[in-house]
């Protein structure tokens, strides 16, 4: 068996072990896992899926199933580039934790205190990302970095997506509750924090991420901006009917969701975070500190406004850009990403050194996440109903 995986191999799969250990100490062979995943990918019409597994804080398995482009029948490889969607937020949370550890930013200091002008005048990117809508709302002055990263700012997710209880809102950014008192997933909060950090440091997000994350971790094919080097090895997103979507090549960095990455790089990132936790690093301690207990019926949609105790058994919570849950085998920390023909999920259990990364270029992928989590690493704790990861069999 190989002792180390190749960093950037032009290969379909590689592994260092023939047996994978689950969080409950049971095992599954690589052959058994691959047979099951292949079956799920075909049955659920998942165009492509790239997956890695970690045991003992090491990447022990990587594989790619299906296609990078369905029409061309291009096989998906582990170094194909994916639109990372909201996995961008997990990397941003880590970056902010690093900056906090360096005393660049205090997680609990109101962001207003970092600028010498009204926060609503903060320089931003596209016009729709400005904060002038909040000119007369003093609650903006209370928002902190921790609130932005734990989704408790009071903002809607995006101003162009009306909250279920405010369907008539036409692209107006609002604060719907006292900051820090409720959970409501918000990309707008991430963008506010991004612009404040860019103001504090005098550096743009891509430069900061490259300096603090991508270069140190050798994430050679990850960026918050589209890069020319991605041109020869990217996969297209696909609809539920396996229609090929045109690749969106982002030219503006967004902490909430512009990142491009691949399985090799993102697995290195996840491995690094796990090792930091094992080393009792302050960065990891900040990252995975529970900030807010979540008691909603779902993360998105109308049910996100309904209270529920369904996930009290796992103590569902949020850290800095990562979700948190408790199990008999230690805590788990997770992040999902979805949008424009891409669906991703990763969860790690830092106390036992086990985890999984799943990147997909299909709008059907979430329908197999629950089963893959269970058979691969024995994760029966991810709140799949809250995530709306309804198995494809239930949709038929």
Automatic annotation (TrEMBL):
It comes from the Bacteria. Residues 36-365 form the Beta-lactamase-related domain. It holds the Pfam family Beta-lactamase. Gene3D superfamilies: DD-peptidase/beta-lactamase superfamily. SUPFAM superfamilies: beta-lactamase/transpeptidase-like. This is Beta-lactamase-related domain-containing protein.
């Amino acid at each position: 068996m190989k002792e180390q995986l190749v960093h950037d191999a032009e290969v379909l799969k590689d592994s260092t072990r023939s047996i994978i250990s689950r969080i409950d100490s049971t095992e599954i062979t690589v052959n058994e896992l691959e047979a099951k995943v292949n079956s799920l990918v075909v049955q659920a019409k998942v165009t492509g899926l790239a997956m890695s597994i970690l045991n003992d804080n090491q990447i022990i398995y990587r594989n790619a199933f299906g296609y990078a482009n369905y029409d061309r029948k291009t096989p998906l490889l582990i170094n194909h580039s994916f639109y990372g969607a909201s996995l961008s937020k997990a990397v941003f949370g880590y970056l902010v934790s690093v900056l906090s550890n360096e005393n660049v930013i205090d997680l609990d200091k109101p962001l207003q205190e970092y600028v010498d002008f009204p926060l609503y005048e903060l320089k931003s990117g596209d016009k729709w990302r400005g904060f002038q809508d909040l000119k007369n709302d003093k609650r903006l002055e209370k928002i902190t970095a921790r609130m932005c990263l734990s989704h408790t700012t009071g903002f809607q997710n995006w101003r162009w997506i009306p909250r279920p209880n405010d369907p008539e809102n036409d692209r107006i950014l609002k604060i719907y509750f006292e900051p820090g008192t409720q959970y409501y997933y918000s990309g707008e909060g991430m963008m506010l924090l991004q612009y404040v950090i860019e103001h504090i440091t005098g550096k743009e997000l891509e430069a900061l991420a490259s300096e603090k994350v991508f270069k140190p971790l050798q994430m050679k094919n990850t960026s918050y901006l589209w890069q020319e080097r991605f041109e020869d090895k990217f996969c297209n997103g696909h609809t539920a009917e396996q229609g090929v979507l045109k690749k969106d090549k982002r030219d503006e960095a967004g902490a909430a969701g512009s990142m491009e990455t691949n399985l090799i790089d993102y697995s290195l990132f996840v491995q690094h975070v796990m090792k930091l936790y094992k080393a009792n690093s302050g960065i990891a301690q900040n990252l995975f500190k529970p900030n807010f207990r979540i008691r909603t019926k779902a993360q998105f949609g109308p049910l996100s406004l309904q209270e529920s105790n369904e996930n009290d058994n796992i103590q569902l919570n949020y850290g800095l850009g990562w979700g948190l849950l408790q199990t008999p085998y230690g805590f788990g920390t997770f992040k999902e990403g979805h949008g424009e023909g891409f669906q991703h999920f990763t969860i790690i259990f830092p106390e036992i050194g086990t985890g999984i990364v799943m990147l997909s270029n299909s709008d059907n992928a979430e329908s197999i996440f629950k089963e893959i989590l269970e058979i691969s690493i024995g994760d029966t704790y991810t709140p799949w109903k809250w995530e709306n990861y309804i198995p494809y069999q239930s949709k038929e």
